Amino acid sequence: MTTIASDTTYPSARHFWLGMAAYIVPTFPVAFVWHLVLFEQRYQALGIYRADPIIPFGLASMIIQAGIFSWVFPRLFPRDRNSILKSGLLFGLAAGLLSWSFTTLAVAAKHPMSSITDYVVLESAFTLVQFLIVGPLMALAHRTSGIDRTMVS
Length: 153
Known about the structure:
Mean pLDDT: 87
Largest sheet: none
Number of domains: 1
Number of strands: 0
Helix content: over 70%
Distance between the termini: 8 Å
Keywords: Membrane, Transmembrane, Transmembrane helix
Order of helices and strands: HHHHH
Number of helices: 5
Radius of gyration: 19 Å
Transmembrane segments: 16-37, 57-77, 89-109, 121-141
Low-confidence stretches: 1-8, 148-153
């Protein structure tokens, strides 16, 4: 009689923390410079953001996102079946699209602003830059981790 059992190898804590760093380390400075330096005047002209952003709330949000994305990555891309670049860009596409749906579309739908078009263009470009960087870094952080499910008899 053949039985199917799961020999599950979960990603190591090291890979999880590296994945979190792969998200936070580039995202925080890119977001800070993008929103509060390069395009600060354009965002102020939109009239939707606080004059004095609460940086610790933004960082807390990134930490939560980093934990979720780092936990999800090896479950979507088990083992090294794809190249780091391919799996990273695919992950960046999926995670970026999800992020874009609630940081761009939902915000544009709910908040008054002087130009929905300007907001959508700015945030779409930010999300693209962010996940073009984060996706491959997340794949690199998890390159030897993953969930390995095998059949044993």
